[in-house]
Design goal:
two-stranded antiparallel sheet, alpha+beta, DNA polymerase, domain 1, single chain, extended, 7 helices
């Protein structure tokens, strides 16, 4: 319990601005009875914010914070829809596949073709960075990471050329190949360790 409290306190100490943002949203919701998304204008009623039940009240505060921030996921969904329409209009369904969307990220499976990757990179930045209102204080930003697995990725600069993409694809390939080789070595070390501590015939029999 003590360790958990330390982690909790450390988080809010590190992200003071989020705590201030949440507190401001809660104070506003106490006056109006609802919380408003700056992204979509949608309102969410929070009837238990002034409840005498402390558990319900704290839960409602978390709902307010989540809604204020996570409602911006609308921008990702908007970009995803525009990307899918573009993929279909360009006839790229067989080589560019949207496979997942998590929070503010869209995941693709793309053929290893630098010209194709450039098309996707340019279009993705375009649809991800469309302003959601005229008086945005901070412009939207986006970037495309590529790789042969989800762990070892490299980031493409916005609107970079094919030559740069070729270079970064090679970097991603080396990261992947190095990881695979490392895993093979680890497996070999484990096998050797097992053989050193077991009768070889017994081991082969057990492993089939």
């Amino acid at each position: 319990m003590k360790a958990g409290q330390i982690i909790w306190d450390s988080y809010w100490d590190l992200y003071k601005e989020i705590k201030w943002f949440n507190n401001e949203a809660v104070m506003e919701a106490k006056k109006t009875g609802y919380v408003t998304s700056e992204c979509t204008g949608l309102r969410l009623k929070v009837p238990f914010l002034n409840s005498r039940d402390e558990y319900r009240q704290e839960k409602e505060k978390r709902v307010i914070g989540n809604f204020k921030i996570q409602s911006f996921n609308f921008l990702t969904l908007r970009a995803l829809n525009r990307m899918q329409k573009w993929i279909e209009s360009e006839g790229l369904q067989q080589v560019v596949l949207i496979v997942n969307q998590i929070h503010d990220a869209i995941y693709f499976r793309i053929r290893n073709d630098s010209e194709l990757i450039k098309l996707v990179n340019d279009k993705l930045i375009e649809v991800m960075c469309i302003p959601y209102r005229d008086d945005m204080p901070i412009p939207l930003e986006a970037e495309l990471d590529i790789g042969f697995n989800w762990k070892d990725m490299v980031t493409l600069p916005n609107n970079c050329d094919v030559a740069k993409i070729d270079e970064l694809v090679d970097d991603a390939k080396q990261l992947h190949d190095g990881k695979v080789e490392e895993e093979k070595l680890d497996e070999a070390d484990e096998l050797i360790e097992q053989l050193l501590h077991k009768d070889v015939d017994t081991y082969l029999l057990e492993e089939g």
